[in-house]
Task: inverse folding
């Protein structure tokens, strides 16, 4: 009969492990990789004892800067039984015979008080520490006080530059205009891109002027004046002197609500006794981990996903 953890594994990866306990071992190995992404993590390894020469089976083997670690994973969700002292003591016995720095115990159903007391003194008893980790399905209470989403409201101002700029013409400029226009002409359509000097050479551009010298937008309108000493505009082939450009730019306001949230569904909660570990693991996190033919855990890189293998090989 599949355990709740087996069903969770099937929900995430779409396959049911072929033997009892394997789903939880894989999930614990995947969580180890997520917590230590730059350290090698293996599932289901063998290691020879230094003294007994016994060949031990390691549910999880991880290698950090502090040395190799032996991980044991127990899924007692089918009968709702806590991990007891005997389980922890068995791990401590193996640790004293193996070339590892310490051990980690993963339980989906918590630990008995004697088990916790034994683990707390494991270093004195066996010479190597044991870290007890509660790794279980996330419940609503686990999410209390955590930031799962951030809402951001953005006000976007979009300028309308149509007929926004008007030249401030000098007296000399008006004199030039009278030579090229008649009194009945009220308006001259003019595209302004460059401000010229009195020789017709480029003095500056409208882009340069507006990129650094706009006034602040007030009441959805930006208005002001861009001074251009010695500036001229080319109007109907004549250079017309200007003091500068007046502008009256209207803005439309668009309000955007952006929500940044955790990617995926909160699936597993990982905590240890001293509070140094308290993480929520999502199904998206777990799906990012896969195992190669040597049972080493790897993280998928975006755009480079490995091919899904057969359920028997169990490469999630």
Result:
């Amino acid at each position: 009969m599949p355990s709740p953890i087996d069903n969770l594994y099937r929900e995430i990866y779409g396959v049911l492990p072929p033997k009892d306990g394997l789903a939880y071992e894989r999930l614990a190995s995947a969580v180890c990789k997520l917590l230590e992404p730059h350290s090698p993590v293996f599932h289901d390894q063998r290691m020879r004892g230094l003294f007994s020469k016994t060949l031990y089976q390691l549910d999880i083997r991880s290698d950090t800067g502090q040395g190799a670690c032996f991980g044991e994973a127990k899924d007692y969700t089918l009968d709702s039984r806590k991990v007891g002292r005997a389980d922890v003591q068995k791990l401590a016995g193996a640790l004293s015979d193996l070339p590892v720095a310490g051990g980690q115990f993963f339980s989906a159903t918590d630990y008995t008080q004697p088990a916790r007391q034994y683990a707390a003194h494991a270093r004195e008893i066996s010479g190597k520490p044991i870290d007890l980790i509660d790794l279980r399905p996330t419940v609503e209470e686990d999410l209390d006080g955590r930031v799962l989403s951030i809402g951001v409201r953005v006000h976007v101002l979009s300028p309308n530059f149509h007929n926004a700029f008007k030249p401030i013409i000098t007296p000399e400029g008006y004199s030039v205009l009278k030579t090229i226009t008649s009194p009945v002409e009220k308006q001259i359509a003019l595209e302004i891109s460059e401000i010229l000097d009195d020789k017709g050479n480029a003095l500056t551009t409208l882009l340069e002027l507006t990129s650094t010298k706009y006034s602040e937008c007030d009441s959805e309108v930006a208005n002001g004046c861009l001074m251009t000493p010695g500036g001229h505009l080319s109007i109907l082939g004549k250079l017309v002197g200007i003091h500068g450009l007046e502008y009256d730019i209207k803005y439309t306001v668009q309000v955007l609500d952006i929500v940044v949230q955790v990617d995926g569904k909160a699936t597993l909660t990982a905590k240890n006794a001293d509070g140094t570990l308290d993480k929520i693991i999502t199904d998206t996190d777990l799906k990012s981990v896969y195992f190669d033919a040597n049972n080493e855990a790897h993280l998928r890189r975006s755009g480079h996903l490995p091919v899904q293998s057969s359920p028997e090989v169990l490469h999630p």
About this structure: The CA atoms of residues 43 and 60 lie 5 Å apart.
